[in-house]
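Agenda item 2: KG4 complex prediction
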Amino acid sequence: MKVLGIETSCDETAAAVVEDGRKLISNVVNSQIDIHAVYGGVVPEVAARSHIEVVNAVVREAVKGAEGWEEIDAIAVTYRPGLLGSLLVGTLAARTYAALKKKPLYLVDHIEGHIYANFIEDERGLAAPEFPLLALVVSGGHTQLILMRGHGDFEIIGTTRDDAVGEVFDKVAKMIGLPYPGGPAIGKAALSGDRGKFKLPKPKVDKPYDFSFSGLKTAVLRAVQKEVGVGIDFPSGGLAERLSEEQVWDFAASFEKTAVGYLVDKLCAAYEEFAPKSVVIAGGVSANRYLREEITRRLPCSVDYAVMELCTDNAAMIASAGYFHVLNGSPCDPYEVEIG
Ligand code: KG4
Ligand code: ZN
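Presented output:
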């Protein structure tokens, strides 16, 4: 069974076709990174407008890669969470295609989709993850530990109290003068830095699997202000120009070490308690190499990491999740879709 996935929740317009939830047939991603980079972050209205301009072409290309609409058995679309204007474009496109081409329509949660990126086969021919499955979700909008006992069965065992980890990567990057998106830029700069140069705290929260990142962001701000010799009232926007290249590398490395160490501490503790059969990581920050190295080093089980292009936003993960909705759920009425 072939499912067409459509994803427009943030700044990527994506469509993909996946067979039986695991075999990637076509995968098209139109990234808006260049459009938003000039603003240093995603501008919601600009994102929605850009989705409108390209969504039909992106869907057409994905369907063409699967040899036409006759081959498509169902459509799956991201309906939450995300930027409302952006979600509206993808869901409206999916509803229109479902009605016109007479295909059943399924609604997929974006975070669920990120987890399903780990079900897609690649050239390594990996086996599908087994249940119970423990997922560490690390994206620009979410930081969660999720336990899945079967398809569609999700228990959130931990979540962030404030910022998401990807958001903090992006904000710290901006503070030290690295380009948007900050996550990959921090990862690259950290390779040249000294991870032990600046001591940063791991925030404490009362629940064992919850996270908090806002204190870490402030700790980096204070450390940078101290390093360049200004007071705590000095605006964060003026700090980057006072840092040398070496200082930027050291801040990137020290921040990455602390943030990743914190994530892996929680993942290891949850692994001990819930004894899952498999562990996956999901969301944009799961593309981070140092995070992967630390999980491999510290977790007492092996983890098969998804290929990098399936970690950040894409529609193949939505099509994969959609396949399991087809097997276990019922389609929605394309005239009655609510987003957000
Ligand atoms: O999952 P995603 O593509 O979009 C959301 O659903 O939010 O995640 C985007 C986030 C951004 O914060 C970006 O900086 C981060 O993922 N990211 C990374 C890396 N690649 C993307 N963070 C750390 N290291 C990376 N290599
Ligand atoms: Zn995402």
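Discussion summary: The mean pLDDT is 96.
Owner for follow-up: CH.
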